[in-house]
Amino acid sequence: MSAIKQKLQEKIEGWRPRTTRLVKEYGDVKLGEVSIGQAIGGMRGVKCLVTDISYLDPFEGIRFRGYTIPEVLEKLPKPAGAEYPTVESFFYLLLTGDIPTEKEAEEIGEEFKARAKVPQYVFDVINAMPPEAHPMVMFSAAILSMEKESIFAKKYKEGISKMDYWDPTYEDAMNLLAKLPEIGAYIYRKKFKGGDIIAPDPSLDFGANFAHMMGVPAPYDELSRLYFILHSDHESGNVSAHTGHLVASALSDVYYAISAMIDGLAGPLHGLANEMVLRWIQGVMDKMGGKVPDEEEMKKFVWDTLNSGQVIPGYGHAVLRKTDPRYMAQREFSLKHLADDPIFAYVDILYKVVPDILREHGKAKNPWPNVDAQSGVIQWHYGVREYDFYTVLFGIGRSLGVLSNIIWDRGLGYPIERPKSVTTDMLEEVAGIKK
Ligand code: CMX
Fold first, then answer.
1. 242-252 pLDDT, tens per residue?
2. CATH fold of 273-381, please?
Protein backbone atom coordinates (compact mmCIF):
# COMPACT_ATOMS: atom_id res chain seq x y z
CA MET A 1 0.00 0.00 0.00
CA SER A 2 1.34 3.49 -0.91
CA ALA A 3 2.27 5.90 1.89
CA ILE A 4 -0.61 8.23 1.07
CA LYS A 5 -3.13 5.38 1.09
CA GLN A 6 -1.72 4.09 4.37
CA LYS A 7 -2.12 7.56 5.86
CA LEU A 8 -5.63 7.91 4.49
CA GLN A 9 -6.61 4.57 5.96
CA GLU A 10 -5.37 5.63 9.41
CA LYS A 11 -7.17 8.96 9.13
CA ILE A 12 -10.46 7.39 8.02
CA GLU A 13 -10.36 4.68 10.67
CA GLY A 14 -9.51 7.28 13.32
CA TRP A 15 -12.42 9.47 12.24
CA ARG A 16 -15.13 6.78 11.95
CA PRO A 17 -15.90 6.54 15.71
CA ARG A 18 -16.72 10.28 15.76
CA THR A 19 -19.31 9.93 13.01
CA THR A 20 -20.71 6.69 14.44
CA ARG A 21 -21.06 8.22 17.92
CA LEU A 22 -22.80 11.34 16.59
CA VAL A 23 -25.36 9.24 14.74
CA LYS A 24 -25.90 6.67 17.52
CA GLU A 25 -25.93 8.90 20.60
CA TYR A 26 -26.85 12.33 19.26
CA GLY A 27 -28.80 11.54 16.09
CA ASP A 28 -31.93 13.35 17.39
CA VAL A 29 -30.18 16.61 18.34
CA LYS A 30 -31.57 19.37 16.07
CA LEU A 31 -29.31 21.38 13.76
CA GLY A 32 -32.06 23.83 12.83
CA GLU A 33 -35.51 24.01 11.32
CA VAL A 34 -36.69 24.22 7.72
CA SER A 35 -39.08 26.97 6.68
CA ILE A 36 -41.49 27.03 3.76
CA GLY A 37 -39.27 29.72 2.20
CA GLN A 38 -36.30 27.36 2.33
CA ALA A 39 -38.24 24.41 0.92
CA ILE A 40 -39.40 26.44 -2.08
CA GLY A 41 -36.21 28.50 -2.21
CA GLY A 42 -33.65 25.91 -3.18
CA MET A 43 -32.91 24.75 0.41
CA ARG A 44 -30.87 27.94 1.03
CA GLY A 45 -29.21 27.71 4.46
CA VAL A 46 -30.64 24.31 5.42
CA LYS A 47 -27.90 22.53 7.38
CA CYS A 48 -28.12 18.97 6.14
CA LEU A 49 -24.73 18.12 4.59
CA VAL A 50 -21.47 17.21 6.32
CA THR A 51 -17.96 17.74 4.98
CA ASP A 52 -14.59 18.31 6.59
CA ILE A 53 -12.76 19.12 3.36
CA SER A 54 -13.75 22.80 3.30
CA TYR A 55 -15.99 25.25 5.16
CA LEU A 56 -17.53 28.46 3.83
CA ASP A 57 -18.07 31.31 6.27
CA PRO A 58 -20.34 34.00 4.74
CA PHE A 59 -18.03 36.82 5.82
CA GLU A 60 -14.61 35.22 5.82
CA GLY A 61 -14.96 33.04 2.73
CA ILE A 62 -13.58 29.57 2.14
CA ARG A 63 -11.20 27.61 4.35
CA PHE A 64 -9.69 24.43 2.96
CA ARG A 65 -9.11 21.97 5.81
CA GLY A 66 -9.08 24.96 8.17
CA TYR A 67 -6.66 27.06 6.11
CA THR A 68 -7.59 30.35 4.38
CA ILE A 69 -6.52 30.89 0.76
CA PRO A 70 -3.50 33.07 1.70
CA GLU A 71 -2.42 30.40 4.23
CA VAL A 72 -2.74 27.62 1.65
CA LEU A 73 -0.72 29.61 -0.88
CA GLU A 74 1.96 30.36 1.67
CA LYS A 75 2.32 27.00 3.46
CA LEU A 76 2.14 24.39 0.68
CA PRO A 77 5.28 23.20 -1.16
CA LYS A 78 5.97 24.93 -4.48
CA PRO A 79 8.00 23.89 -7.52
CA ALA A 80 11.52 25.39 -7.44
CA GLY A 81 11.35 29.16 -8.01
CA ALA A 82 7.54 29.17 -8.36
CA GLU A 83 5.05 31.62 -6.88
CA TYR A 84 2.16 29.19 -6.39
CA PRO A 85 2.07 25.73 -4.78
CA THR A 86 1.61 22.49 -6.65
CA VAL A 87 -1.85 21.04 -7.17
CA GLU A 88 -0.39 17.77 -5.92
CA SER A 89 0.45 19.24 -2.50
CA PHE A 90 -2.96 20.87 -2.31
CA PHE A 91 -4.74 17.59 -3.11
CA TYR A 92 -2.73 15.94 -0.32
CA LEU A 93 -4.04 18.61 2.06
CA LEU A 94 -7.65 18.10 0.93
CA LEU A 95 -7.37 14.34 1.31
CA THR A 96 -5.58 14.12 4.64
CA GLY A 97 -6.01 17.50 6.35
CA ASP A 98 -2.20 17.78 6.67
CA ILE A 99 0.26 20.09 4.95
CA PRO A 100 2.53 17.66 3.08
CA THR A 101 6.30 17.65 3.08
CA GLU A 102 7.92 18.09 -0.33
CA LYS A 103 8.45 14.34 -0.46
CA GLU A 104 4.82 13.57 0.33
CA ALA A 105 3.66 15.98 -2.37
CA GLU A 106 6.08 14.39 -4.84
CA GLU A 107 4.59 10.98 -4.08
CA ILE A 108 1.17 12.26 -5.18
CA GLY A 109 2.84 13.58 -8.33
CA GLU A 110 4.36 10.16 -9.00
CA GLU A 111 0.95 8.52 -8.49
CA PHE A 112 -0.64 10.89 -11.02
CA LYS A 113 2.13 10.25 -13.54
CA ALA A 114 1.73 6.49 -13.27
CA ARG A 115 -2.00 6.81 -13.97
CA ALA A 116 -2.02 9.61 -16.55
CA LYS A 117 -2.33 7.68 -19.81
CA VAL A 118 -5.67 8.52 -21.41
CA PRO A 119 -7.18 5.59 -23.37
CA GLN A 120 -7.46 6.24 -27.12
CA TYR A 121 -11.23 5.62 -27.05
CA VAL A 122 -11.66 8.80 -24.94
CA PHE A 123 -10.17 10.88 -27.75
CA ASP A 124 -12.34 8.95 -30.22
CA VAL A 125 -15.44 9.91 -28.21
CA ILE A 126 -14.42 13.59 -28.29
CA ASN A 127 -13.58 13.41 -32.00
CA ALA A 128 -16.95 11.83 -32.77
CA MET A 129 -18.91 14.75 -31.31
CA PRO A 130 -20.31 17.52 -33.51
CA PRO A 131 -17.68 20.30 -33.73
CA GLU A 132 -20.17 22.80 -32.30
CA ALA A 133 -20.70 20.68 -29.13
CA HIS A 134 -19.96 22.74 -26.01
CA PRO A 135 -16.59 21.89 -24.39
CA MET A 136 -18.45 20.95 -21.18
CA VAL A 137 -20.47 18.38 -23.15
CA MET A 138 -17.23 16.93 -24.53
CA PHE A 139 -15.67 16.93 -21.05
CA SER A 140 -18.62 15.25 -19.38
CA ALA A 141 -18.93 12.63 -22.14
CA ALA A 142 -15.18 11.92 -22.09
CA ILE A 143 -15.27 11.29 -18.34
CA LEU A 144 -18.36 9.12 -18.56
CA SER A 145 -16.85 7.06 -21.38
CA MET A 146 -14.18 5.84 -18.94
CA GLU A 147 -16.74 4.30 -16.56
CA LYS A 148 -15.78 0.83 -17.70
CA GLU A 149 -12.39 1.40 -16.00
CA SER A 150 -13.99 1.70 -12.56
CA ILE A 151 -12.28 -0.48 -9.98
CA PHE A 152 -15.00 0.32 -7.45
CA ALA A 153 -17.75 -0.96 -9.77
CA LYS A 154 -15.78 -4.18 -10.34
CA LYS A 155 -15.03 -4.76 -6.65
CA TYR A 156 -18.63 -4.00 -5.71
CA LYS A 157 -19.86 -6.72 -8.06
CA GLU A 158 -17.36 -9.10 -6.48
CA GLY A 159 -18.82 -8.36 -3.04
CA ILE A 160 -16.44 -5.98 -1.25
CA SER A 161 -17.09 -5.05 2.43
CA LYS A 162 -18.62 -1.62 3.10
CA MET A 163 -15.62 -0.81 5.33
CA ASP A 164 -13.37 -1.06 2.28
CA TYR A 165 -15.43 1.01 -0.20
CA TRP A 166 -13.08 3.98 0.14
CA ASP A 167 -10.08 1.99 -1.16
CA PRO A 168 -11.20 1.31 -4.77
CA THR A 169 -12.87 4.74 -4.72
CA TYR A 170 -9.46 6.26 -4.00
CA GLU A 171 -8.01 4.24 -6.90
CA ASP A 172 -10.74 5.44 -9.26
CA ALA A 173 -10.34 9.05 -8.07
CA MET A 174 -6.58 9.05 -8.63
CA ASN A 175 -6.96 7.35 -12.03
CA LEU A 176 -9.52 9.92 -13.12
CA LEU A 177 -7.80 13.03 -11.72
CA ALA A 178 -4.50 12.10 -13.33
CA LYS A 179 -6.16 12.15 -16.77
CA LEU A 180 -8.26 15.32 -16.49
CA PRO A 181 -5.55 17.86 -17.51
CA GLU A 182 -4.79 15.99 -20.73
CA ILE A 183 -8.49 15.53 -21.55
CA GLY A 184 -9.17 19.23 -20.88
CA ALA A 185 -6.22 20.40 -22.98
CA TYR A 186 -7.14 17.95 -25.75
CA ILE A 187 -10.66 19.41 -25.95
CA TYR A 188 -9.16 22.91 -26.19
CA ARG A 189 -6.64 22.09 -28.91
CA LYS A 190 -9.07 19.89 -30.85
CA LYS A 191 -11.93 22.37 -30.81
CA PHE A 192 -10.06 25.66 -31.07
CA LYS A 193 -6.55 24.96 -32.41
CA GLY A 194 -7.36 22.83 -35.44
CA GLY A 195 -6.54 19.57 -33.65
CA ASP A 196 -2.87 20.50 -33.22
CA ILE A 197 -2.40 18.37 -30.09
CA ILE A 198 0.58 18.82 -27.75
CA ALA A 199 1.78 15.65 -26.02
CA PRO A 200 2.08 15.70 -22.21
CA ASP A 201 5.46 16.26 -20.55
CA PRO A 202 5.71 13.85 -17.61
CA SER A 203 8.58 15.82 -16.08
CA LEU A 204 6.17 18.66 -15.21
CA ASP A 205 3.78 19.05 -12.29
CA PHE A 206 -0.03 18.86 -12.73
CA GLY A 207 -0.48 22.60 -13.39
CA ALA A 208 2.63 23.12 -15.50
CA ASN A 209 1.89 20.07 -17.64
CA PHE A 210 -1.60 21.39 -18.27
CA ALA A 211 -0.18 24.78 -19.34
CA HIS A 212 2.30 22.97 -21.61
CA MET A 213 -0.46 20.89 -23.27
CA MET A 214 -2.58 24.04 -23.72
CA GLY A 215 0.37 25.54 -25.58
CA VAL A 216 0.44 28.68 -23.40
CA PRO A 217 3.84 29.88 -22.07
CA ALA A 218 4.73 30.97 -18.51
CA PRO A 219 3.34 32.31 -16.29
CA TYR A 220 0.29 30.28 -17.43
CA ASP A 221 1.73 27.38 -15.41
CA GLU A 222 1.50 29.53 -12.27
CA LEU A 223 -2.01 30.59 -13.22
CA SER A 224 -3.09 26.98 -13.80
CA ARG A 225 -1.91 25.94 -10.34
CA LEU A 226 -3.65 28.91 -8.75
CA TYR A 227 -6.80 28.39 -10.78
CA PHE A 228 -7.21 24.68 -9.97
CA ILE A 229 -6.60 25.31 -6.26
CA LEU A 230 -9.05 28.21 -6.03
CA HIS A 231 -11.85 26.35 -7.82
CA SER A 232 -11.43 23.04 -6.00
CA ASP A 233 -14.04 23.13 -3.27
CA HIS A 234 -16.63 25.45 -1.72
CA GLU A 235 -18.16 23.14 0.90
CA SER A 236 -20.89 20.73 -0.13
CA GLY A 237 -24.09 22.62 -0.91
CA ASN A 238 -23.20 24.24 -4.25
CA VAL A 239 -24.64 22.56 -7.33
CA SER A 240 -21.48 20.83 -8.57
CA ALA A 241 -20.29 19.53 -5.19
CA HIS A 242 -23.77 18.50 -4.16
CA THR A 243 -24.41 16.73 -7.47
CA GLY A 244 -21.17 14.78 -7.15
CA HIS A 245 -22.01 13.77 -3.60
CA LEU A 246 -25.62 12.90 -4.45
CA VAL A 247 -24.80 10.70 -7.43
CA ALA A 248 -21.97 8.97 -5.54
CA SER A 249 -24.32 8.35 -2.59
CA ALA A 250 -26.14 5.77 -4.75
CA LEU A 251 -22.73 4.04 -4.94
CA SER A 252 -22.45 5.09 -8.55
CA ASP A 253 -18.71 5.17 -9.20
CA VAL A 254 -16.74 8.40 -9.58
CA TYR A 255 -16.95 8.40 -13.39
CA TYR A 256 -20.74 8.76 -13.14
CA ALA A 257 -20.48 11.19 -10.24
CA ILE A 258 -17.89 13.52 -11.79
CA SER A 259 -19.56 13.50 -15.20
CA ALA A 260 -22.81 14.56 -13.45
CA MET A 261 -20.91 17.14 -11.39
CA ILE A 262 -19.61 18.65 -14.64
CA ASP A 263 -23.18 18.87 -15.98
CA GLY A 264 -24.26 20.86 -12.92
CA LEU A 265 -21.25 23.12 -13.18
CA ALA A 266 -22.23 23.92 -16.78
CA GLY A 267 -25.21 26.07 -15.70
CA PRO A 268 -24.97 29.87 -16.19
CA LEU A 269 -25.86 30.53 -12.54
CA HIS A 270 -22.92 28.35 -11.46
CA GLY A 271 -19.65 27.57 -13.28
CA LEU A 272 -20.69 28.93 -16.65
CA ALA A 273 -20.78 32.41 -15.10
CA ASN A 274 -17.08 32.85 -15.96
CA GLU A 275 -17.99 32.46 -19.65
CA MET A 276 -20.95 34.83 -19.18
CA VAL A 277 -18.70 37.50 -17.61
CA LEU A 278 -16.47 37.53 -20.68
CA ARG A 279 -19.44 37.49 -23.05
CA TRP A 280 -20.88 40.48 -21.17
CA ILE A 281 -17.59 42.39 -21.13
CA GLN A 282 -17.10 41.71 -24.83
CA GLY A 283 -20.55 43.14 -25.49
CA VAL A 284 -19.59 46.32 -23.63
CA MET A 285 -16.24 46.46 -25.47
CA ASP A 286 -17.98 46.18 -28.84
CA LYS A 287 -20.38 48.97 -27.95
CA MET A 288 -17.48 51.13 -26.75
CA GLY A 289 -15.40 50.37 -29.87
CA GLY A 290 -12.65 48.95 -27.66
CA LYS A 291 -12.32 52.08 -25.50
CA VAL A 292 -12.38 51.60 -21.72
CA PRO A 293 -15.61 53.18 -20.42
CA ASP A 294 -15.47 55.69 -17.59
CA GLU A 295 -17.43 54.94 -14.42
CA GLU A 296 -20.59 56.75 -15.57
CA GLU A 297 -20.63 54.90 -18.90
CA MET A 298 -20.08 51.58 -17.16
CA LYS A 299 -22.90 52.29 -14.71
CA LYS A 300 -25.23 52.71 -17.67
CA PHE A 301 -24.24 49.30 -19.11
CA VAL A 302 -24.83 47.66 -15.74
CA TRP A 303 -28.25 49.26 -15.31
CA ASP A 304 -29.22 48.36 -18.90
CA THR A 305 -28.43 44.71 -18.14
CA LEU A 306 -30.43 44.75 -14.90
CA ASN A 307 -33.34 46.61 -16.46
CA SER A 308 -33.54 44.02 -19.23
CA GLY A 309 -34.14 41.39 -16.52
CA GLN A 310 -30.69 39.78 -16.61
CA VAL A 311 -28.27 39.15 -13.76
CA ILE A 312 -24.80 40.73 -13.62
CA PRO A 313 -22.60 37.67 -14.10
CA GLY A 314 -19.79 37.23 -11.59
CA TYR A 315 -21.63 39.09 -8.84
CA GLY A 316 -23.72 37.74 -5.97
CA HIS A 317 -23.54 34.50 -4.05
CA ALA A 318 -25.91 32.17 -2.25
CA VAL A 319 -23.75 32.01 0.91
CA LEU A 320 -21.01 34.66 0.75
CA ARG A 321 -21.77 38.14 2.04
CA LYS A 322 -18.49 39.84 1.11
CA THR A 323 -16.01 39.93 -1.76
CA ASP A 324 -15.03 36.34 -2.54
CA PRO A 325 -11.44 35.71 -1.39
CA ARG A 326 -11.05 33.60 -4.55
CA TYR A 327 -11.76 36.82 -6.49
CA MET A 328 -9.20 38.67 -4.37
CA ALA A 329 -6.51 36.02 -4.97
CA GLN A 330 -7.05 36.37 -8.73
CA ARG A 331 -7.14 40.15 -8.46
CA GLU A 332 -3.73 40.05 -6.77
CA PHE A 333 -2.42 37.85 -9.58
CA SER A 334 -3.87 40.31 -12.13
CA LEU A 335 -2.42 43.38 -10.43
CA LYS A 336 0.97 41.73 -10.57
CA HIS A 337 0.86 40.24 -14.06
CA LEU A 338 -1.73 42.11 -16.17
CA ALA A 339 -2.50 45.43 -14.52
CA ASP A 340 -2.00 47.27 -17.83
CA ASP A 341 -4.32 45.07 -19.88
CA PRO A 342 -7.41 47.09 -20.95
CA ILE A 343 -9.62 44.09 -20.17
CA PHE A 344 -8.43 44.20 -16.58
CA ALA A 345 -9.44 47.88 -16.56
CA TYR A 346 -13.01 46.73 -17.36
CA VAL A 347 -13.01 44.32 -14.41
CA ASP A 348 -11.54 46.98 -12.17
CA ILE A 349 -14.24 49.53 -13.07
CA LEU A 350 -16.94 46.90 -12.59
CA TYR A 351 -15.60 46.24 -9.09
CA LYS A 352 -15.95 49.96 -8.38
CA VAL A 353 -19.49 50.41 -9.72
CA VAL A 354 -21.44 47.14 -9.50
CA PRO A 355 -21.76 46.68 -5.69
CA ASP A 356 -23.43 50.08 -5.21
CA ILE A 357 -25.75 49.47 -8.15
CA LEU A 358 -26.78 46.03 -6.90
CA ARG A 359 -27.48 47.56 -3.48
CA GLU A 360 -29.62 50.24 -5.07
CA HIS A 361 -31.31 47.65 -7.27
CA GLY A 362 -32.25 46.00 -3.99
CA LYS A 363 -32.54 42.33 -4.96
CA ALA A 364 -29.20 40.54 -4.62
CA LYS A 365 -28.39 39.68 -0.99
CA ASN A 366 -24.70 39.87 -1.81
CA PRO A 367 -23.58 42.73 -4.08
CA TRP A 368 -19.92 41.64 -4.17
CA PRO A 369 -17.95 39.80 -6.89
CA ASN A 370 -17.57 36.03 -6.79
CA VAL A 371 -14.85 33.74 -8.17
CA ASP A 372 -16.15 34.05 -11.75
CA ALA A 373 -15.90 37.83 -12.04
CA GLN A 374 -12.15 37.79 -12.62
CA SER A 375 -11.17 34.36 -13.85
CA GLY A 376 -12.06 34.58 -17.56
CA VAL A 377 -10.32 37.91 -17.91
CA ILE A 378 -6.99 36.39 -16.88
CA GLN A 379 -7.45 33.55 -19.35
CA TRP A 380 -8.21 36.13 -22.04
CA HIS A 381 -5.00 37.97 -21.24
CA TYR A 382 -2.94 34.82 -21.84
CA GLY A 383 -4.59 34.21 -25.20
CA VAL A 384 -7.17 31.65 -24.10
CA ARG A 385 -9.97 33.69 -25.63
CA GLU A 386 -12.43 30.93 -26.44
CA TYR A 387 -14.60 31.62 -23.46
CA ASP A 388 -16.88 28.64 -23.80
CA PHE A 389 -13.82 26.65 -22.66
CA TYR A 390 -13.47 28.41 -19.30
CA THR A 391 -15.84 26.19 -17.34
CA VAL A 392 -13.75 23.13 -18.26
CA LEU A 393 -10.93 24.74 -16.25
CA PHE A 394 -13.32 25.17 -13.33
CA GLY A 395 -14.33 21.50 -13.74
CA ILE A 396 -10.75 20.21 -13.51
CA GLY A 397 -10.27 22.21 -10.31
CA ARG A 398 -13.65 21.27 -8.80
CA SER A 399 -12.88 17.57 -9.33
CA LEU A 400 -10.09 17.83 -6.72
CA GLY A 401 -12.56 18.78 -4.00
CA VAL A 402 -15.48 16.62 -5.04
CA LEU A 403 -13.31 13.50 -5.40
CA SER A 404 -11.76 14.10 -1.95
CA ASN A 405 -15.28 14.34 -0.58
CA ILE A 406 -16.46 11.17 -2.28
CA ILE A 407 -13.50 9.20 -0.92
CA TRP A 408 -14.35 10.40 2.61
CA ASP A 409 -18.09 9.81 2.09
CA ARG A 410 -17.25 6.18 1.37
CA GLY A 411 -14.74 6.01 4.22
CA LEU A 412 -17.31 7.24 6.74
CA GLY A 413 -20.13 5.17 5.27
CA TYR A 414 -22.50 8.03 4.43
CA PRO A 415 -25.79 6.58 3.19
CA ILE A 416 -27.71 7.16 -0.01
CA GLU A 417 -29.22 10.67 -0.02
CA ARG A 418 -32.99 10.80 0.27
CA PRO A 419 -34.62 14.01 1.55
CA LYS A 420 -38.41 14.14 1.78
CA SER A 421 -40.69 16.19 -0.44
CA VAL A 422 -44.11 17.63 0.35
CA THR A 423 -46.94 18.96 -1.82
CA THR A 424 -48.11 22.58 -2.23
CA ASP A 425 -51.37 21.55 -0.49
CA MET A 426 -49.35 20.40 2.51
CA LEU A 427 -47.42 23.68 2.61
CA GLU A 428 -50.70 25.63 2.56
CA GLU A 429 -51.99 23.49 5.39
CA VAL A 430 -48.85 24.08 7.47
CA ALA A 431 -49.16 27.80 6.70
CA GLY A 432 -52.74 27.75 7.99
CA ILE A 433 -54.21 29.08 4.73
CA LYS A 434 -55.96 25.84 3.82
CA LYS A 435 -57.81 23.38 6.01
N1 CMX B 1 -27.39 40.45 -10.69
C2 CMX B 1 -28.71 40.71 -10.65
N3 CMX B 1 -29.57 40.14 -9.79
C4 CMX B 1 -29.05 39.29 -8.90
C5 CMX B 1 -27.68 38.99 -8.84
C6 CMX B 1 -26.83 39.59 -9.80
N7 CMX B 1 -25.54 39.32 -9.87
N8 CMX B 1 -27.48 38.11 -7.84
C9 CMX B 1 -28.68 37.85 -7.29
N10 CMX B 1 -29.64 38.56 -7.93
C11 CMX B 1 -31.07 38.49 -7.72
C12 CMX B 1 -31.55 37.06 -7.90
O13 CMX B 1 -31.73 36.74 -9.28
C14 CMX B 1 -32.83 37.06 -7.11
O15 CMX B 1 -33.81 37.68 -7.91
P16 CMX B 1 -35.35 37.16 -7.86
O17 CMX B 1 -35.81 37.47 -6.47
O18 CMX B 1 -36.02 37.96 -8.93
O19 CMX B 1 -35.31 35.69 -8.14
C20 CMX B 1 -32.49 38.00 -5.95
O21 CMX B 1 -31.39 38.80 -6.39
C22 CMX B 1 -32.10 37.28 -4.68
O23 CMX B 1 -31.03 36.39 -4.96
P24 CMX B 1 -29.93 36.03 -3.85
O25 CMX B 1 -30.65 35.36 -2.71
O26 CMX B 1 -29.09 37.20 -3.55
O27 CMX B 1 -29.02 35.00 -4.62
P28 CMX B 1 -29.28 33.46 -4.91
O29 CMX B 1 -28.76 32.69 -3.75
O30 CMX B 1 -30.68 33.20 -5.32
O31 CMX B 1 -28.39 33.22 -6.20
C32 CMX B 1 -26.44 33.42 -7.53
C33 CMX B 1 -26.98 33.22 -6.12
C34 CMX B 1 -24.93 33.26 -7.53
C35 CMX B 1 -27.05 32.33 -8.46
C36 CMX B 1 -26.85 34.84 -8.01
O37 CMX B 1 -26.21 35.81 -7.20
C38 CMX B 1 -26.54 35.10 -9.47
O39 CMX B 1 -27.37 34.75 -10.34
N40 CMX B 1 -25.34 35.70 -9.78
C41 CMX B 1 -24.93 35.93 -11.15
C42 CMX B 1 -24.41 34.61 -11.74
C43 CMX B 1 -23.09 34.21 -11.11
O44 CMX B 1 -22.17 35.00 -11.00
N45 CMX B 1 -22.98 32.92 -10.71
C46 CMX B 1 -21.71 32.36 -10.20
C47 CMX B 1 -21.72 32.10 -8.71
C48 CMX B 1 -20.43 31.44 -8.28
C49 CMX B 1 -20.37 30.03 -8.85
O50 CMX B 1 -21.14 29.17 -8.39
O51 CMX B 1 -19.60 29.80 -9.75
1. 999 999 999 99
2. Cytochrome p450-Terp; domain 2 (1.10.230)
